[in-house]
Write a structure and sequence with these properties.
This protein is an alpha/beta fold. The termini are far apart. The protein has a single domain (2-157), classed as TIM Barrel (Alpha-Beta Barrel). The chain has helices spanning 49-59, 78-91, 105-109, 112-119, 151-157, and strands at 2-10, 17-23, 45-46, 64-70, 96-101, 123-126, 147-150. The longest helix is centred in the middle third of the chain and has 14 residues, at 78-91.
């Protein structure tokens, strides 16, 4: 797995102060993507144990409320991110993990590796960014087609449960 950046303190990609990992590689190529440079699978730096320890150290801060995974496309980096999330859960089980994906929840469920990563997280922001549906007034997402999904509730109930049904 490769990554473009790790933000120790991020307030734009989930509630509170979060640590964010931006992986590289994405085949969606959304028009006006906010991280176009991270679409390249060879961009960034190779992930190592050093970065895993760095993320865990950042998350141990009482001011950090959780981890956010985005990119690029996290669901096209499942092996590396699944290992990272498992380690984070072992060391810091009480903080939330958000994951952003251009894949829809329904499509993620049809792929074993994507579903495994999804099941380790708390909240999914799903769907591709659609420039024609851009809405800067929405919480933690760029376009109106994207949903903020409570993963555990949705998996248990078999129906999607949204964190903020009205998106604001």
């Amino acid at each position: 797995m490769r990554y473009g950046q790790i933000r120790q303190f991020d307030v734009a990609n989930g509630p509170g102060i979060r640590t964010s990992v931006f992986v590289t590689g994405c085949t969606h190529h959304c028009v006006n993507c906010f991280n176009e440079e991270y679409q390249d699978f060879s961009a960034g730096t190779e992930w190592t144990e050093k970065e895993t320890q760095q993320v865990i150290t950042y998350m141990q801060s009482p001011s950090v409320s959780g981890l956010t995974l985005l990119g690029g496309e996290p669901m096209q980096n499942t092996a590396g991110l699944t290992a990272l999330v498992k380690r984070v859960r072992q060391c810091i089980p009480d903080k939330t993990i958000w994951i952003y994906s251009g894949f829809t929840y329904e499509r993620i469920l049809r792929d074993r590796d994507k579903k495994e990563l999804l099941s380790l997280c708390d909240v999914l922001v799903d769907g591709p960014f659609i420039d024609a549906l851009r809405d800067p007034g929405l919480f933690f997402r760029g376009s109106a087609n994207q949903r903020i999904i409570r993963i555990r509730d949705s998996l248990q109930r078999g129906t999607i449960t949204l964190l903020w049904p009205d998106g604001r």
